[in-house]
Please model this.
Amino acid sequence: MNTQSSYGMHRWAGRTAIVTGASSGIGAAIAARLVSEGLRVVGCGRRQTGVAEILRAVDPAGKNSLAVACDVRDEASVRQMVAATRERFGGVDVLINNAGLGHAGTLAEGRVDDWREMLEVNILGLCLCTREALADMRARGGFGQIIHIGSMAGQRVPPGAGFYGATKHAVRALTESLRLELRERGDPIRIGEVCPGYVETGFAEHYYKSADKARATYSQFTVLTAADIADAVVYMLACPEHVQVHDILLRPTEQPS
Model:
């Protein structure tokens, strides 16, 4: 394991991060990167075996990582995830709210089941994880960082993605709402959001229900990689304690919107 921390990451050495949606894509890249930066990482996903494989590759002995099965839509499951983190590593210091999904569809013809799943994962799941992690941070002195992985769809409304875009606009509002709550209480906890444009992961195939459309999406120009998003997360964490980076918006250079 690489234990050479990036500039500014030294104060997180030995601290514990929860990363949701860590079985693949952006979540997997963030989880692996944080282990390499010297953090202990609890990777969560509905597929525990997938998370375990990711963490085993960067922490073969399993001393600094833990794979946990968690459905962020289920309150009891989220509480069990945080309890497992406390039991293994003493508590959570960093929460990366990465779990999220999308379904293509117009508002005129969308499916209620798709809308409900996006609401439950992208908004309610994020809120449940935030609430439980925040309570744990406060119980141990209030030091910590919460980072939501949002989307450029939360900064504008992409054609044909109204409902998905609405959930990501909600994440943007929740980020600012939590910032205001933290400042009102004087908590030494930071909150920020990373909003990527096109990133080559399994998202597009799930979104369009088509491998061909996913390939077409990612072949238009050079898109971002999951490692690019992990870099943004590390930058946000590495800033001095008096600096809170509230939003990072990043697109492929050639992405027009």
In short: Residues 48 and 69 are 5 Å apart (CA to CA). The radius of gyration is 17 Å. The helical segments are 25-36, 48-58, 75-89, 112-139, 162-185, 203-208, 211-218, 226-238. Residues 11-248 form a domain with the Rossmann fold fold (CATH 3.40.50.720).
